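Here is one chain, start to finish.
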Amino acid sequence: MKNGLLNRGDATAVPETIRILTYNIRNGRGIDAPDSMNVARIGRVIAAQQPDVVALQELDRQTRRSAGRDV
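Its structure:
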């Protein structure tokens, strides 16, 4: 590695695995309880998968559908 960049000779023979998780959190509402938010449960679901990278969809910031909460 030179100046923070990898050189061709730096590559290892065994590729590393990167776990990527994409999750539509539906504004913090579960399918089984659409009238209540359970952000803690979403966190537990994500943690259980042990991802390296997480991409979340349908997060809200002070919108009417999330009752003005940041989700």
